[in-house]
Amino acid sequence: MNVIATGFAFSFAYDEKYGTSAQLSGGTDIGRLEIYMKNMIVSLISIKKQNPDDEVMLIVNTQIPEVFEKYAGMLKENGVVIRTLEYDCFRFPEDFPWSLAAFKLCVLKYLSESEYERAMIIDCDTYTVHPFDELWKEADHGLMLYNLGHSYEHEERQIMRKTYARLYSEGSDHIVHYGGEFICGIRDDLKAYAECCQKVFLRMEECGFDVDRLRTNDETVMAFAAAEYKKTGAVVEGGAYIYRYWTEKKFYLVSTNAFYNPVCIWHLPSEKNRGFLIMYNEFIKKKAFPDIDRAAKIFGIVKAKRPYPLATAYAQWVRSRSKK
Questions:
Q1: What is the dihedral of CA 296, 300, 306, 309, to 10 degrees?
Q2: Could you tell me which residues come within 8 angstroms of residue 307 by beta carbon, excluding any fewer than 6 positions away?
Q3: How far apart are CA 86 and CA 208, in angstroms?
Q4: Angle, alpha carbons 235-222-234 (nearest 5°)
Q5: pLDDT grade, residue 177 (50/70/90)?
Q6: What's the pLDDT tens digit per position in 276-302?
Q7: What is the pLDDT of residues 92-143, one digit of tens each?
Q8: Which of 5, 92, 135, 211 has the fewest CB atoms within 10 Å, i.e. the most exposed one?
Q9: How many Cβ atoms from other residues are within 10 Å of residue 16's Cβ?
């Protein structure tokens, strides 16, 4: 059986030492936690709608508080399984802004030791628009991770390379920046990768977490572990199936792969407080998600509304004439 799991460290308190997400401005007040729950409703149910034969689960590290039982009920009504997993590994210090994001690595370890033939871990700010049939076939050929495509001197990748050099005095610093929103593979591959992640984390712990605390996170562990994993195993590019769309005005990044050569999963980190809440309200009202065109508009993945450059208009005219 295939399984799709969202690892979510649900730390419920109004004034907890740990935050929730740097992209939700930290903190754990009830309003932010409710946003998370609505995000998860959209994310997990959209997966189940597209993949009814796969087991879809939410894994939490604590019992869901009674105030959020209505959301848990919605997940269960739509075929999503909720499981509790003790957060007993990959625990970063509390002053790391992304500390709780590493719970997905605990989930990775758990799934790699389970009975599932294949498994995928994705974040709750994702929306699934197509079935995973091809994705599962691809996973048979190697561990699947999502390369963010950062160049060698990109700021984020530079920080990773420098951090790697602080932890490992020998060896290549050719670290690829993989996104933390997606891990997929067959059980044996996931088990081997989870062991690599554990070794990396233990190395950080041995060094007293002497790293950039603001920027070190689950992606750092994943990237370093991937470098080790590649020595004996194959990593398959996951970008054909998932893509990170930035929809902020200051960093607007979309792609034609929403429709042309489409990916299965849209990762929308800037839409936690906007698009996902609109989509949640639509689902509550209609008990179904909108068609893909409307979904793209809700999440800000739309064609630019501006006049064609003259050269583009001319090229289209030439193509139309050549077909006659």
A1: -80
A2: none
A3: 23
A4: 10
A5: very high
A6: 999 999 999 999 999 999 999 999 987
A7: 988 888 888 899 999 999 999 999 999 999 999 999 999 999 999 999 999 9
A8: 211
A9: 14
Q: Which domains are present in the chain?
A: 2-320 (3.90.550.10)
Backbone φ and ψ of 126, nearest 5°:
-125, 155
**pTM over 0.90, yes/no:** no
Dist CA 126 CA 316 (whole Å): 35
Chain-centroid distance of CA 190 in Å reads 16
Asked if residue 107 lies in contact with residue 259, where contact means CB atoms within 8 angstroms, the answer is: no
Instruction: Measure the CA dihedral 214/217/219/223, to 10°.
Output: 90
pLDDT of residue 8: 66
Place of tokens 């429709």: 259
One-letter-per-residue 3-state SS of 146-193: EECCCCCCCHHHHHHHHHHHHHCCCCCCCCCCEEEEEEEEEHHHHHHH
Length in residues, the chain: 324
Annotate 67-105 with DSSP letters as a single string: GGHHHHHHHHHTTEEEEE----S----TTSTTGGGGHHH
Alpha-helical regions (H) of the chain: 30-50, 69-77, 103-112, 133-139, 155-167, 187-206, 218-229, 275-286, 292-298, 310-322
Q: Which two tokens stand for residue 163?
A: 């951090």
